[in-house]
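so my prof wants the structure for this chain in the tokens format not the other one, which i didnt know existed until like an hour ago. anyway here's the sequence
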Amino acid sequence: MPPKKKVEAAAVSGAARFGRVKNSLKFGLVGLPNVGKSSLFNLLTAQNAEAANYPFCTIEPNESRCAVPDDRYDYLCSIWKPPSEYPAYLQITDIAGLVKGASEGKGLGNAFLSHIQAVDGYFHIVRAFEDPDVTHVDDGIDPIRDAETIQHELCLKDLDALSKAYKAEEVDVKKTQGSKLSQLFIDTMEKVKVMLEKDIPVRDGEWSSPEVDMIKRKLHTLITTKPCIYLVNLSAKDYIRKKNKWLVKLHQWIQAHGGGQMIPFSVEYEQELWDLRDDATALAEQEKVAKSVLPKAIVNAYHELNLIHFFTAGEKEVRCWTVYGGAAAPAAAGVIHTDFERGFIKAEVVSFEDFKELNTGKGMVAIKEAGKYKQEGKQYIVQDGDIIHFQFNVTTQKKK
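here's what i got, hopefully its the right format
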């Protein structure tokens, strides 16, 4: 019998290269005051965070979570109809609005830049709707100016972090007689500095593996290494007709200043859909006009953090378990319970696609007969959408 092929972990690229390898990562909402952050937070998480029409309504960050939409999960729930159902979740943090000069203490200042440092990625919310009843911190609506303001402040904050890291390294080096700064450290810091002085996010540079490792070890607080998705808040009218004078210009600016996803949406329209949530007929009619874009934003943020999930499914429960992309089977088992990882024996795995194609009921009989229910060991890399049953021995002793 030929040996099983080892499933290799997908290479991590983009901003995820710099991120923490954890299963519980957070995505923040970042932008100027009164661009719709707290209202969006309420819609995403079904919370009631204050969303008033004045600057700095949000002071301390609001935190909650929202379910990650997944048709595969819905399908498994429809098959088993279990009493307990648990989707995957994205952790969301609503951060106070930043203003020009925040890195120098203006507005609510550096405290709130530190809140951005504490999340693992962020939605950059840009206002592109006109409304005289909703105040703006600057005169007139100009999404490009606003985006430039935020990016400039984040780069300034990172330059400050760079300076502190350089001084700290010099102090550490002086403690060792005869040592000096490594050339890799010097070259990497200079490369970071050049990008930040041009207001270009670090995540969008060309970096070698040693440089990535250096940035992660010495500059782990950098904000511009984090994944960013631009959300452009339109009026309901513009969102429905899919037209706004700023969209093309803003997209061009994003591509010229580090790149990234741009998703047009409308808090106004999303609120209309939310208000109809208990009236299925009215909601269906409204969605014929335009559908919510929030599911797309949530899923994209989840994947930008390099998060995936596997399923456990049966008559008692269908659950999504979030793991960091590239996790091996024992680490995934540990998400369920530490004993599962400590006493890991094997994982019985079927991909969702194979399960759906072969499923004739609730069980795995047809899947096993087709040879698609596989036994995997400690080296197996969990794939997004795997349905897994772990076998373990809880009497296995901890290593001393």
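also thought this was worth mentioning. The chain is about 40% helix and 15% strand.
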